[in-house]
TrEMBL record:
Protein source organism: Halobacterium hubeiense
First and last residue of the signal peptide: none
Keywords carried by this UniProt record: Flavoprotein, Transport
Protein family per UniProt: Belongs to the ETF alpha-subunit/FixB family.
One record GO biological process: fatty acid beta-oxidation using acyl-CoA dehydrogenase
Annotated gene: etfA
Protein's name according to its UniProt entry: Electron transfer flavoprotein alpha subunit
Length: 321
């Protein structure tokens, strides 16, 4: 076994996801702690451009597997097992994304390694990996000590800074043939769900609406605010439960984790399950009639006021009408 780290790039519908660059930072930290090299693996039909994006400071080698445009469990499990068997890294680090949660346990099983999911912190010293995780909607922080490697972990998006700079990693195609007979599923196409192909996890500016909006018809108001400010619309869970917005817009414990530069929470109380999904935003602004709403405990800026007054004023300010 080497002291190296292998991280696995995440992409969706042709775009590298932000968590891929965060994985490089987490991986570099582990590689420095263990005294090893940082490797990145990318599996896609579009490996050249992804490899270019992944070549950041601190990355030693990038291994590409040119196969298919879309994620496939069996291809990932086969390829990553083969790469890990070849490199024998102390750590395999995957994203805690839908894809990562799909293949990481399978890879760990094939390699006969322990697996810890949803890490928000990693600390490696003297052969023990301490993984920090959150429980009960981020109310409780726990640490899991894994005393003996090699390890497989998946990390939560938004917890590490993205790797920066331009590196000079050695990029090479991994010598590997997919066993097509063992590939049990095939992506035949995509069907749009309502809400379009929007990934709120990638947005820089979210206008997020909660139950304070009262009626579905009133959503037009916040849609207009999102439009004039160039923001993406997201929401708390009741809005999705009511069927007013599709599930891919929901922020929170049972929705998406988001880390925008700005999160504008309108008519959202700030329940722990909601906060679990957005507390990583750089700047949180809240609009709420209730000065004691818990959202103000974590907001950087707050307006105690009626959204039906505040939102039109913001539209006028930013829309210039
Ligand atoms: P409310 O809590 O009803 O708050 C509405 C707020 O709007 C209030 O603070 C009120 O003062 C304010 N308001 C009312 N009128 C106005 C006005 N005119 N102008 C300005 N402000 C106004 N929730 C999520 O969001 N995401 C999740 O992923 C999620 N997962 C969950 C998982 C589990 C297992 C459970 C049990 C719950 C989960 N919830 C989740 C639900 C969560 O507990 C809350 O019920 C929910 O977040 C409340 O949404 P809200 O803030 O929009 O509504």
């Amino acid at each position: 076994m080497t002291s190296d780290v292998l991280v696995v790039a995440d992409h969706r519908r042709g775009d590298l996801r932000d968590v891929s660059l965060e994985l490089l930072s987490a991986g570099r930290e582990l590689a420095d702690a263990a005294g090893g090299d940082l490797h990145a693996a990318v599996i896609s039909g579009n490996v050249e451009s992804f490899a270019e994006d992944l070549d950041r400071e601190g990355v030693d080698r990038i291994h590409t597997v040119a196969h298919g445009e879309e994620f496939n469990h069996d291809v990932y499990a086969q390829a990553l097992t083969a790469i890990a068997e070849d490199l024998a890294p102390e750590f395999v680090v995957a994203p805690n994304s839908v894809n990562g949660l799909d293949y990481a346990p399978a890879v760990a099983t094939r390699l006969d390694r322990p697996y810890v999911s949803d890490a928000v912190g990693l600390d490696y010293s003297e052969g023990t990996l301490e993984v920090t995780r959150e429980m009960y909607g981020s109310k409780v922080e726990t640490t899991v000590d894994v005393a003996e490697g090699p390890f497989v972990v998946s990390i939560r998006g938004g917890e590490w800074p993205p790797a920066e700079g331009v590196g000079d990693a050695e990029v090479s195609e991994f010598d590997f043939e997919v066993d097509e007979d063992a590939v049990r599923s095939k992506v035949k196409g995509f069907e749009e769900v309502g809400g379009g192909d929007v990934d709120i996890a990638d947005a820089d500016f979210l206008v997020s609406i909660g139950r304070g909006i009262e009626e579905e018809e009133n959503l037009e108001l916040v849609e207009e605010l999102a439009e004039v400010t160039g923001a993406t619309l997201s929401s708390s869970r009741p809005i999705v439960d009511n069927g007013w917005l599709p599930k891919n817009r929901q922020v929170g414990q049972s929705g998406k984790q988001v880390t925008p530069d700005v999160y504008l929470a309108i008519g959202i109380s700030g329940a722990v399950q909601h906060v679990a999904g957005m507390k990583g935003a750089d700047t949180i602004i809240a609009v709420n009639t209730d000065p004691n709403a818990p959202i103000f405990d974590i907001a950087d800026y707050g307006v105690v006021g009626d959204l039906f007054d505040v939102v039109p004023a913001l539209i006028e300010e930013f829309g210039g009408e």
